[in-house]
Write a structure and sequence with these properties.
Blueprint (H helix, E strand, L loop, with lengths): L5 E4 L2 E4 L1 E2 L5 E3 L7 E6 L4 H8 L10 E3 L6 E3 L5 E3 L10 H4 L21 E6 L19 H18 L8 E3 H4 L7 H12 L3 H33 L1
Parallel strand pairs: 3-7, 5-9, 5-10, 6-9
Antiparallel strand pairs: 1-2, 4-8, 6-7
Helix pairs in contact: 3-5
Amino acid sequence: MSTLKQVEYAGKMYPVRFVQTPNWSFTGMSKKGLVWHATTSNSFEGALSWLTNPSSGVSALALIGREVGEIAILGLVNQKLWHAGKVFEPHARFKAIAEKGDMNGSGSYVNPNLYLDGVEFAGGVDTDKSGKVEHDEIELTEWQYHVATQVANWHAIECGYELTEETQVIHQDIASYKPDLTYVLDEIKFRLFKKSKQDAKDCKQLQEKIETQDTIISLLLKIISLIFKK
């Protein structure tokens, strides 16, 4: 198994650190997607220390810090990394990609860590200056979003699955009590599957133009209908 060696940002290449976490076990399943997480800590080194601490019991495939150059791979794609093992009131996004077991016909969910890898962002910013970072104060940097798309593309190629919107979920999709990072997921998906914001703007303008034309045509047809009725 190979790992991500470098990423590009602003026309420059940056090396990717590899720090094998001890918090992993074996999986016989192929990976087919990513789960996006964010810590309330803004410290890359602090998050790295926690994810590689045997006492924490948690890990992830990758960690992306707030500052340019902060990125590390913590395991291999053939390892079961511990980031989202518990399924609780799952959302539709997870259900679309979830694997279910057939033991006793229960249809229970297979541990997501067996076939989904996790990516952590060090995302906390104390925006209200309260002295404590809340989950709604998670703000990612341009570096983090830019590198996230490269990690997603690399992961799909390395694991051999087609990169689609369905292959990207957040932790809350698996366990409903987790923070809502839909806005993070939406931005990642936009960058992965839309060519540019101008494309989106052009598409919206075209749709508005079509709707205007449809309205004009409808009015003309009504006028013609009234004329012929006379």
